[in-house]
Amino acid sequence: MSLAILYSRAVLGTESPLVTVEVHLSGGLPSLSIVGLPETAVRESKDRVRSALLTAGFEFPQRRITINLAPADLPKEGGRYDLAIALGILCASQQLKKVPVHEYEWLAELALSGELRGVTGVLPAMLAAQKAGRQLLVAQDNAQEAGCVQDTSVLAASHLLQVCDHLQGRQRLTTIEPVMGCVRHVGADMEQVRGQQQARRALEVAAAGQHNLLMSGPPGSGKSLLASCLPGILPELTPAERLQVASLHSIAGLPVSAVCAGVRPYRAPHHTASAISLVGGGGIPRPGEISLAHLGVLFLDELPEFPRRVLDVLRQPLETGDILISRAKRQVTFPAHFQLLAAMNPCPCGYFQDGTGRCRCSPEQIRRYQGRLSGPLLDRIDLQIQVNALPAKSLLQAAAGQESSTQVRARVVAAWSRQLQRQGYSNRGLQGADLYQHAALAATEALLLAQAAERLGLSARACHRILRVARTLADLEAAAEIQRHHLLEALAFRGTAPGGSAG
């Protein structure tokens, strides 16, 4: 038979569409052509495949070889189709006879020596292959990623000859065993934080309700340390959430072992990052930082140093929880339900109102610096606190009585459980009728909020966010209703950072 048909997988957003690899040998001058919208790396696979077959001891057919990657309108990129193309040539030239290649999907790049190399996007391909009822075969480089998912049937090989031996029944490959015992969290612990009781409390509230948090304070006040503690007090990802996040990291070529162990992602891009690096993009769209922080934390240090147009791209994902990337031929939607954690200095030099008198910035400089953050962006940040510098004497004292991340996390997990039992999602998502039902106020508390909104000039969105924070404070105390002290504490967390007093 001069025609062989095999299956592989492409990458398109968070999906992994099927690609049928058709290899046909015919008479004519020796040549090899690849059709089906291949990009440069795919077109170059003919040279990799030729060398891999020859070095592995096979013959390269001296015939006209046509390779079709279907569907023809789906862009193909990378070396992920090399193995399927090589096996197709071997089957079409009868060097491999009567082997069940149609029972598998192939996803690996070939080295010139015939060794298999890993590719990106293995995890979504695994799930798609499992749904289609076929086994996926990947390179040994991807074995660890494949083993992070339970109940999957994936094979791994390190060389083309191993694959051929498996197909011919000479030496069968074994299914990848699930990887167990991953570390749940690596990072700072809350007990390392000296003092900063309000900041510690704000961090706990932010974790308990998935609220966005902005910390403002002078250099060295502990903002970055506090930020690094947040992943350690968040609940673990559920099994369904692990697959979502791991698929995004797999597409981006990032390790997925920690995510598959339940650790929520923590992304901290530098302030020189572009808008494209945050939202994602490219000719074939890839996820950006906000999608890689899906169901986790996006930490933006030195927030005013980010270009304003870069920060403004966060506004829509913060509300909708996803990002739509449009290109001329297709649109791709990436999930982006992240928790924003930001830190900033109060002025260009950083020492405004720190009590030392070191600040030499003029009022106009301070106004321009704080004005780099737009009102609509600040309006989407639930908690805005001032982190004051601690005296050196306090820093040298032992951290007696400081709670650890494990202790704080127990309260956070309990609060999350109450929210899931009551409304099925975190308090951050409360809106509309659900907000007024689950965060209802008594008459005296409602009057207090109305007076505060009028005095502070809070927008309707800011009032809603105060209600959500107050609901979270009540959940931390296992209170059925929002009480006066919950509302007062929620108001105290709103507008104490520079630029945030207007809601």
UniProtKB/TrEMBL annotation:
Pfam families from the UniProt entry: ChlI, Mg_chelatase, Mg_chelatase_C
Keyword terms, alphabetized: Hydrolase, Protease
UniProt key word Protease: yes
Domain called AAA+ ATPase: residue spans: 209-391
Record's signal peptide: none
Source organism superkingdom: Bacteria
Record InterPro entries: AAA+_ATPase (IPR003593), CHLI-like (IPR045006), Mg_chelat-rel (IPR004482), Mg_chelat-rel_C (IPR025158), Mg_chelatse_chII-like_cat_dom (IPR000523), P-loop_NTPase (IPR027417), Ribosomal_Su5_D2-typ_SF (IPR020568), Ribsml_uS5_D2-typ_fold_subgr (IPR014721)
SMART domains with a match to the protein in the record: AAA (SM00382)
An example Gene Ontology molecular-function term: peptidase activity
One example of a Gene Ontology biological process annotation: proteolysis
Family: Belongs to the Mg-chelatase subunits D/I family. ComM subfamily.
Protein name: ATP-dependent protease
Lineage, broadest ranks: Bacteria, Pseudomonadati, Pseudomonadota, Gammaproteobacteria, Oceanospirillales
